[in-house]
Every structure is written in C-alpha cells, then in structure tokens.
Amino acid sequence: MAQAVKExxxxxxxxxxxxxxxxxxxxxxREEPFSPEDLGVIETKMREIIKKNYPFERRExxxxxxxxxFKNMGETxxxxxxxxxxxxxxxxxxxxxxxxxxxxxxxxxxxxxKAFKLxxxxxxxxxxxxxNPMLQRIYGTAFPTQKDLEHYIKTIxxxxxxxxxxxxxxxxYFSMNDEMGPGLVLYHPKGARLxxxxxxxxxxxxxxxxxxxxxxxxxxxxxxxxxxxHYDYYKENMYMFKIENQEYAIKPMNxxxxxxxxxxxxxxxxxxxxxxxxxxxxxxxxxxxxxxxLLRVRGFTQDDAHIFxxxxxxxxxxxxxxxxxxxxxxxxxFDDFSIELSTRPAKSIGSDADWALAEKALIDSLNRKSxxxxxxxxxxAFYGPKIDIKLKDALxxxxxxxxxxCDFALPERFDLKYIGQDGKEYRPIMLHRVILGSxxxxxxxxxxxxxxxxxLWLAPVQCVIIPVSEKAGVYAENVWRTLFAGDIRVEIDxxxxxxxxxIRDAEVQKIPYMIVIGEKEESVGMISVRSKAQGDIGxxxxxxxxxxxxxxxxxxVR
Length: 558
Ligand code: ZN
What we know:
The chain has three domains: 160 residues, Threonyl-trna Synthetase, Chain A, domain 2 (Threonyl-tRNA Synthetase, Chain A, domain 2); 243 residues, 2-Layer Sandwich (BirA Bifunctional Protein, domain 2), CATH 3.30.930.10; 93 residues, Anticodon-binding domain (Rossmann fold, 3-Layer(aba) Sandwich), CATH 3.40.50.800. Helices cover 36% and strands 27% of the residues. The chain has an eight-stranded mixed β-sheet with strand order 11-15-16-23-20-19-17-18, with helices on both faces. Strands 1, 2, 3, 7 and 8 form a five-stranded antiparallel β-sheet that branches. The longest helix is centred in the middle third of the chain and has 20 residues. Zinc ion (ZN) binds next to loops.
C-alpha cells in the first residue's frame, strides 16, 4: 500500500506501517487529505504492483548510511525512527523502486498477496502525541484467499448490525447519559426485566450448588481496604470520600464483606468448604477514554462468590466452578469458550511459595479437566493467580466472563482461621470466582450473540396481543389475564394504529410471539398466532398456546 501511495503521490511522507490484529495500517503525511474515492485508486495501483510480482529484498545497513539514504528521499519521519533504534545496524526492505525501513519478515514477493481491501481513513498524531503533526492513517486487511476476505468483511458488517449499544436503544433495554455521568447504566423496563431473569437463573443455580446467599454494604471504612491491600494496590481505581472525618471507599470488590461473614464465628474443618454468594454491585474508577457500552462501565454487578476451603479441597472446588461455568454458558446458548491462566503481576502481595502453590492448583485443575489454556504472564490479581474463561459468540468474538482466583494472601491479612481435626488453628484458602462476570457485560454479549432476538425464556416480552379493532378489546384483556396467569410475559398493543404497523413494530422489537385477535377469533374462542421464527402458525386454543410456550421455555429453545 505504501508503495502504491508513493507512486501516486510522490510528495507523501511515510510514518509507520505495522501489522495489527486483523490487518494493517500505514500513516502518511500529505498536504491534501485522502478521500474515500482515493482508496479505490490506491487499490487499483496495488493490484498492478501485485501483478508485477516484485520480490521483497532484505538488507542490513549501517545506521549512519540508512539516515543518509532516507534523508535524501525526504523521509524525515523514517530518519527520526532510525535514530531511535538501538544498535548500529537496521534492516531495509525493497520491492521494485520502493524502499522502507522494516524489521520484517515479509512474504517472498508482492505476487503472494492474494486478497486485500482498504477499509478506512483516520487522523493519527505522529507517535500519538497531540502537539505532533497530524498524519493520515489508512487501514486495510489482507487474507490468503478471496473467500477468507469476504468472510471477514461480512463479519464486520454483521458485528455492526449486532452492536449492543444500538440494539440496547432500539429494544429499549438501557441507556447512559452524560448528565448522570459516563459509564453508569440506566436500565429501562425491558432491560431491567432481562437483568432480573438472568439474576433469578444464576441465584437459583448457586443455591442448587451449595452456595449461601449474603448481602453486604456498598461502602466500607478505608481501614478495611488498607488491611485487604486494596489501598496500596488498587487505590487509583477506587472512589473515596469522608463521613465525619472518617475516610470511606465505595467497594470495588466484594471480598471484604464475605470475609467478615466468615470471620463472624468460629469455623471448624467440618464446616468447610463455605461458599458465600452475592449479586455484588461494585464501582471502579475506569478512565473515561476506555468506557465502552456495557463492556467497560464504572458501576456494575458481579455474580460474585468466595469459597473458603481446606488445602486438599482446592482442586475439587476449582473443578466444580469450571463445570458450573460450562453448564451456565450452555444454558445461555454459548457453545464455545477459551481459557487463559494469568500469573503473578509485578505489583502484588504474598510469598513466592504461596503463589507457586496457587498457580499449581489452577493448572492441575485445568489438566484434570483436559482443558487447554494460554498463559497470560503477569496479569493475575494482586492477591493471586487466576483462570479467565472467555465465551465465544456467534461471530466467534471473545467476551471475558468467568474468573477463578486462588488466594492465600487475604486469609493471612484478615487472619482467617478454622479449627482442625487436632483442635489447632489453621488458615483456610480462599477462592474468588465469578461465573457470568459482570452482568452488564454478559448482557452485552447476549444481545450481540442473538442479534437482539433473545430466546423465549429470556425475552423481556414473550408475547404481544394485537386486537384488530376496539371491538376486540374486552376479549384481548381476557386473553391477557389468562396468559399472565399462565406465567407468560405478555403485553397488549392497544394503540390506535393500523394492524400492519403494529405487526411491524413487534417485529422490530423482536418479540417471539404475536397474537392477533378480532371478532372471528372471539366467536370461536381461539387466537391467531404469529411466531417470529416461523411466521403465521394459524389459529389455536389458548390452552395449547400456553403449553407450547411452557415447553419452549423449559427446553430453553434458542
Ligand atoms: Zn474477591
């Protein structure tokens, strides 16, 4: 691309041009801005260059010589780059008349490039510094085959259509506004309904699996955060304030509350494991620049639990959590996931021996489940290593959800104990874990995975009744009452609008079922049903419809 641009506009100066995830970009300094039409012109020139099959030739050059070479070409940005590279030699690549500073490696020749596309133009400051000149960045992508490229382009377009921020507004699930503050989610009635459904599901699953429900306060004295280590290791993410000269912080994590419940009485080895669960709302001071829809917010709720256990229970408990995660992802319609193991970060508490033990417990559990994972060096929590499980959505994009952390440090800091079989005091081990993770982010993943058309069991409105005229109003209300009593989330669209418009609106709202009723239906005591998935499915008895919904709900049909 850079060769093509230089052939078309010899006065354009080159900045940097790295490969990035899913493609590449190059920065150019040029008086006139590139227009979207220019991308087509550049692509045509690129095709010519590919056809000529120029070999990419690498040579090493003394830095002084390279500086002279690029100075002569007028490439002042390259000169600056070369001067900053440590050592005496740099590598230079050339193809045809085009010469560039590059570490490589490259394909052998331009003819090997099979399928590419230029995607967009953006402004970018040199080195990302605002006082530097603004360059023009052209983004592109390349694939081994045309088919792969087309698949990629389709995926980006599909992702745009599924954007949860757009669908969240269209479906009236949630909003955020600057008047309230960025990164703070306001759930509208349908979004609150969805959130409640997710909460009910996950709360029941926890109770079923031996967790006990607790609820803690949202603000705690700073003394607690000093003891937990958050004050020294996490302070920049916390919101602090004073009450009667005493400093408090809004909780960024739920751990201290659960620790206090554990500590509230003497525990015996026979009581362990103790599993305390909370739908815990936390606030973290994220920089406004990184906030993004429901993915990165300042206030969110976790399905958070802490498991206090004996050393020889750790592995079994971790495995139970992994099973819990897989079952939950399947229930919500996700079939694929990936796993990362994060090790000790530079800023952390606890002894090397404990970190080694904790990492071993996590690795052994993954091995026992024969699960493959990648290692994420230095990305653990400050108090322990962790396993991250990322779900993969319908477009194979990854979303961080579950985390399992193994912690020896906080039990030590809070002096947690249990009485062993010999009557002596011992320290329990603590597992921190979330299954869905942030409910906000999980909802974002759900919305994008299903492109807003949630399966019946999660749909905030499962069914809308559309009376064809005012005369059907009383019958519509009777149908509503029966469906409501049958545990179906149902609404009546009694607006004074044309039938076709009401049907279209229900489709836009992605409501799974529509019931159309008029005098004909009333006279035979039936309803006419349209399903979002199957279209018109004809007339049926109300009782049969309720049965149908019940079955679909129980099977969690997607
Ligand atoms: Zn925790």
